[in-house]
Amino acid sequence: MKLASIQAAEAKLLLQTYERHPVLFTGGKGVYLTDEQGDNYLDLLGGIGVNALGYGHPVIEDAIAAQSKKLLHISNLFFHEGQAELALRLTEITGLDRVFLSNTGTEAWEAALKLARAHSALLRSEGKKTGTKILAMSHSFHGRTMGSVSTTHKAMYREPFGPLVPGVEFVGFNDVDDLRAKFSEEFCAIGLEVVQGEGGIHVASREFLATARELCNSTGALLLVDEIQAGMGRTGKWCSYQHLGIQPDITTLAKPLAGGIPIGAMLCTEEAARAMTPGMHGTTFGGGPLACAVAVAVIDHMQQQNLLAHVTEVGSYFREQLHGLATHHTSIVDVRGLGLMIGVELNSADLAKAVAAKMMERHILLNRTSETVLRFLPPYILERKHVDIAVTALDEILKQTTSQASTVLAGGHANG
Ligand SMILES: *Cc1c(COP(=O)(O)O)cnc(C)c1O
Question: pTM of the predicted model, to two decimals?
Answer without folding.
Answer: 0.96
